Amino acid sequence: MRVRRIRRIFPDGKTLIVACDHGMIDGPAAGIEVMGDTLEAVIAGGADGILCSYGTATRFAELLARVALVLRIDGAGTRFGPRAGPGAQFYTVEDALRLGADALCVTAFPGSAHEEATLETLARVIRQAHAWDMPVMAEIVPGGFDSPPEKRTRDAVKVSARVAAELGADWVKIPYVAGFEEVTGTCYAPVVVLGGPRCDDPRETFAMLRASLAAGGRGGVIGRNVWQSGRTTAMTRALSAIIHAGADSQQAWETFQQ
């Protein structure tokens, strides 16, 4: 069953997952104020899967039945909180099964003050999920979400990705760095890139995604740079063309503009 779920998310060994879980921290951020419209636009663009919260998965179940569902099972404080915390497991594998999720997502922060606590949560969820043949995507962010560049070195990303694989993650979502082939070459679980902060020029995202694929990556989990692009469906379609059709950055730009 785990193989069937992974194959739905990675139909040809690669995937485009659009992350729509940001409201758990930021509330109605620009681009996801009206979630139903955002989901419709993403699905129309051909995303393989959507990463979202329990509330979104519950409220928009019929819409999400058209794509793979990756459920955010952990959480943390909101942007109003006094400081970043380690996060915690908010929901159970049984909750995800009731919603028909295809996979779970858990975040960990190697190299931060919360390293051990977040890795322990990741390991616990993987153990629980695999007992039900449910795959887990590990979202690994060296140093934490707001970490400075010196925390996201090639070595930090390489070590962090491998740690996630050692803990049993089915695939790893991690920041792109120069020398990404060292990350994919030493992590025996598939690696996908996260989208990161919003880029003013979509071509920056196209180039990053293309470079990650050339270095052995298996796709991307991208949020703000899709639904804050101003053209959500077109951006989704362009990213999908890079991942599944081998489009280059110029071809993706033309697709985005059409």
Characterization of this structure:
This protein has a single domain, classed as Aldolase class I (TIM Barrel, Alpha-Beta Barrel), CATH 3.20.20. The termini are far apart. The strands form two sheets. The protein has an eight-stranded parallel beta barrel, surrounded by six helices. A two-stranded antiparallel ribbon has the order 4-5. The protein has helices at 2-9, 23-26, 35-44, 54-59, 61-64, 93-99, 115-130, 154-166, 180-186, 202-214, 224-227, 232-245, 249-257; strands spanning 15-19, 49-52, 68-72, 74-75, 88-89, 103-108, 136-140, 171-174, 191-194, 219-222. Helix 3 runs parallel beside helix 12 and helix 10 (202-214) packs parallel to helix 12 (232-245). The chain is an alpha/beta fold. Helix 8 (154-166) links the parallel strand 7 (136-140) and strand 8 (171-174).
Count every helix, treating DSSP H or I runs of 4 or more residues as helices.
13
Tell how many strands the DSSP assignment holds. 10
What is the rounded Rg? 17 Å
Helicity range: 40-55%
Major sheet size, sense and barrel closure: 8 strands, parallel, barrel
Shape descriptor reads globular
Calculate the terminal CA-CA distance, rounded to whole Å. Answer: 39 Å
Q: Into how many domains do the coordinates divide?
A: 1
Proportion of beta-strand residues: 15-25%
CATH architecture: Alpha-Beta Barrel
The H-and-E topology, N to C, reads as HEHHEHHEEEHEHEHEHEHEHHH
**Named CATH topology:** TIM Barrel
Order the strands across the largest sheet as they lie in space: 1-2-3-6-7-8-9-10
Structural class: alpha/beta
Under CATH, the homologous superfamily reads Aldolase class I
CATH class category = Alpha Beta
Low-confidence stretches: none
Name the average pLDDT.
95
